[in-house]
């Protein structure tokens, strides 16, 4: 196994992710763990992460002595390289300029780490790497025993190696995808140099996570808000695997879910997994409170607040020990790693609120419950893989994201049950066709080729003709986007044939809608949802 010592970089989890991708088991621990801990951990290799700090400011940000005494391979990344150099007798200086972003690094001297790994060759025959840099300080003198492994014009010592001791360090970040060969480099370190065994699979993660949940929860009880989304579903399945009936899921149906979604969730969790699930039909309450409210932000706030109220009422019942329960002391959430980063980063660089996102933040304090977040270290695709390994159906796990306020933000303006019913049916037709239409070139369905697709209800009426009669009915807009991060998105160039089929089916099958339009706006300046 590999030990990753974290010096406080935002991307340390990415190192762990790359190591897991090489099927090697790893753990992240703070940089100041004790020497005894490191010895007991007995790593095959150690990776020192980057940091926000500079080596000068932070005397306490050092690698423990055991790192150097153990005789195992060590890889320093960015700050990890600087502290390696400083601790082993080299020199680090504060750079006058920060180097940030894309850089081309020249590889030197045939090291076990970089040999044969390159993106291109210069006319002179130098092997070059395309990398991502982010640093102010730099190593200006190598420690005794080291040789130069990489350089750039701005950073002459961008990589060093002491092959006798198997110490390697790079100033750039191999863990981010912008460093093209980063994955190959990390894999080389953990597999070849450290000799770790590539035998870690998702099944092992389940076993470890189940153990950890049992340790944390003991014989106490847990409640979880099931939304039908990927993250809460996978969290529920995992926790249920660990503690069975000590988990109670509360599924708040706000009446703004997709067609048959509530039944599907119940069938899966109550039916197949035999989990305890309480379904709360709160649609009356939501419709009543939303009635007459047209402002998107006001709608979001109402839905968010009601959701918390309803959930809290259920949780209080469980806490009071109703229905044979002891009372829950834990609240489980499907928080995943990007959420952790986002909420940490949001404090410093939060700009104006474009949309107030619906989540249950603040709930645990209000409820006086401890938090259980078994997915906190995982990325979205790892969560999906975990879900499939836990036996959840791939269609559920690979579903497009669905916003917390549900159809509430896809019915423009005033929300009515009648509108929600029409929208649900139109949306289901669109999704069904997207799943069926395959792209010739890739063989993939258009559902898989798009990141998010849905129908939007427009409460305006237009004139149409059907048979011999005039119609005067509502409009639906179709939205389909492609994006990797949901921060920017392009509208998807769906085949005309597909659009034609969808519009024909909606207008024929959903009485009350007589016009279908396709949204051809990118984000920015438009957003993905209409509200
Ligand atoms: P926008 O519309 O801001 O959406 O471009 C970006 C992504 O966020 C989703 N979204 C939400 N997800 N609660 C959520 O859990 C919300 O309140 C919410 N609002 C938007 C949206 O579906 C898209 O994937």
From TrEMBL:
Protein name, UniProt field: GMP synthase [glutamine-hydrolyzing]
Species per Swiss-Prot/TrEMBL record: Ideonella lacteola
Documented EC number(s): 6.3.5.2
SUPFAM superfamilies membership: Adenine nucleotide alpha hydrolases-like, Class I glutamine amidotransferase-like, GMP synthetase C-terminal dimerisation domain
Pathway membership, UniProt: Purine metabolism; GMP biosynthesis; GMP from XMP (L-Gln route): step 1/1
Catalytic residues (UniProt): 78, 173, 175
Protein function: Catalyzes the synthesis of GMP from XMP.
Catalyses which reaction(s): XMP + L-glutamine + ATP + H2O = GMP + L-glutamate + AMP + diphosphate + 2 H(+)
InterPro entries per UniProt: Class_I_gatase-like, GATASE, GMP_synth_C, GMP_synth_GATase, GMP_synthase, GMPS_ATP_PPase_dom, NAD/GMP_synthase, Rossmann-like_a/b/a_fold
Domain GMPS ATP-PPase: residue ranges: 200-399
Keywords for the protein's UniProt record, in alphabetical order: ATP-binding, Glutamine amidotransferase, GMP biosynthesis, Ligase, Nucleotide-binding, Purine biosynthesis
Keyword Nucleotide-binding set for record: yes
